[in-house]
């Protein structure tokens, strides 16, 4: 016996999340990258190596860019330890590998800085057939 009566068919916890198809996710990534390119907010470098782990080097690089509030640095392989240490204290700079690039992170940042290796890996990822 319960005070107030029992709950017979009460709510059951479940996930209301939905998954997008792989083709739709790829198309979204293409559109987001194209939008940043059309705006002129996509910078391409050979590599993202910094001379030291000091944050002031990154701050100087970002001050040289015009009209930047949030910057996303995309590296092709593993992220360099010096770069990770240099950007750790900056809340407006994020560093991710190319495999972690998604539409949300591109749209959240107004400037996108990529390496050539990152672009090659993204292009390779776009051209691989979708396996079922």
Automatic annotation (TrEMBL):
InterPro entries: Ribosomal_uL4, Ribosomal_uL4-like, Ribosomal_uL4_dom_sf. It comes from Aegilops tauschii subsp. strangulata (Goatgrass). It comes from the Eukaryota. This is Large ribosomal subunit protein uL4m. Keywords: Ribonucleoprotein, Ribosomal protein. GO terms for cellular component: ribonucleoprotein complex; ribosome. It holds the Pfam family Ribosomal_L4. GO terms for biological process: translation. Belongs to the universal ribosomal protein uL4 family. GO terms for molecular function: structural constituent of ribosome. Signal peptide: none annotated. The keyword NAD does not apply.
């Amino acid at each position: 016996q319960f005070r107030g009566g029992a709950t017979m068919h009460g709510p059951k916890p479940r996930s209301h999340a939905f998954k997008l198809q792989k083709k739709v996710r790829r198309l979204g990534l293409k559109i987001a990258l194209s939008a940043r390119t059309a705006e002129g907010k996509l910078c391409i470098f050979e590599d993202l190596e910094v001379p030291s782990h000091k944050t002031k080097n990154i701050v100087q690089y970002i001050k040289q860019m015009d009209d930047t509030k949030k910057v996303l640095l995309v590296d092709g392989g593993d992220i360099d330890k010096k770069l990770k240490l240099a950007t750790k204290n900056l809340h407006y700079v994020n560093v991710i590998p190319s495999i972690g690039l998604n539409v949300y992170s591109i749209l959240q940042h107004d400037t996108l800085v990529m390496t050539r290796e990152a672009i090659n890996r993204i292009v390779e990822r776009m051209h691989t057939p979708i396996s079922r």
